[in-house]
């Protein structure tokens, strides 16, 4: 999906940080000091890049449907910091009209931080059209994007049964195989969220088995703890018994 040299460069750049970490924080988040929506709306189309970036960031806090068309346009901005700010802002202002532009930007943007923000925004949109793109990101992208794709798939719990079960196999695979422990942990969390919406069937059993395996065998203690927490949230009797047996045997 992406050039190997690009992947190595972004992987080496501390890609698990927030896409907005490199941007100076807004001074005051108190209600009386919120940015003025009218002023920020005007700045979304400003010719100066810092002004567009400031305005896009403001709508990470503000919710105003009038900003959505402008934020969609800013997904194609020449500046990556503007694009990632626009993606975040669309995640705070989710709209059906933003889904296709976000998917398109995810498929073509060279910048890993932007793709990470887009994946987060798509999760917040909770639209089934985003499901194939989120699954593809979990399977093929850099670890920062995989991290948030795993979390965003949990939002599919709000959709239909068919959408939920489509998320389960790639999450189980990533839980078992992803080289990044943080990604595996997010897969465990998402599986726990999705299982709570499923009937007790073969798909559900496969997800629970994957979580039990991660709890018992993953080499990372954090992943083990997150898999256990997911199982406890689900409350599956078989899983609870397995947890007790593993802990009594001193294997954990």
Please render the helix and strand layout as text.
Elements lengths: L3 H8 L25 H7 L5 H10 L9 H7 L5 H13 L3 H13 L3 H14 L5 H10 L2 H11 L7 H17 L3 H15 L6 H16 L3 H14 L2 H12 L4
Short description:
This protein has 252 residues and is mostly helical. It has helices at 4-11, 37-43, 49-58, 68-74, 80-92, 96-108, 112-125, 131-140, 143-153, 161-177, 181-195, 202-217, 221-234, 237-248.
Explain what you see.
The chain is mainly alpha-helical and 252 residues long. The chain contains 14 helices and no strands. Helix 7 (112-125) runs parallel beside helix 9. The two termini are 38 Å apart.
Protein structure class: mainly alpha
Note the beta-strand portion: under 5%
Give the beta-strand count: 0
The coarse silhouette is elongated
Count of DSSP H/I helices: 14
CA-based gyration radius = 20 Å
Main sheet attributes: strand count, strand direction, barrel closure: none
- Poorly predicted runs are 1-15, 21-29
Summarize the amount of helix as a percent range. 55-70%
C-alpha termini separation:
38 Å
Order of helices and strands, N to C? Answer: HHHHHHHHHHHHHH
Mean pLDDT: 88
Describe the structure using short key phrases.
252 residues; mainly alpha; 14 helices; disordered N terminus
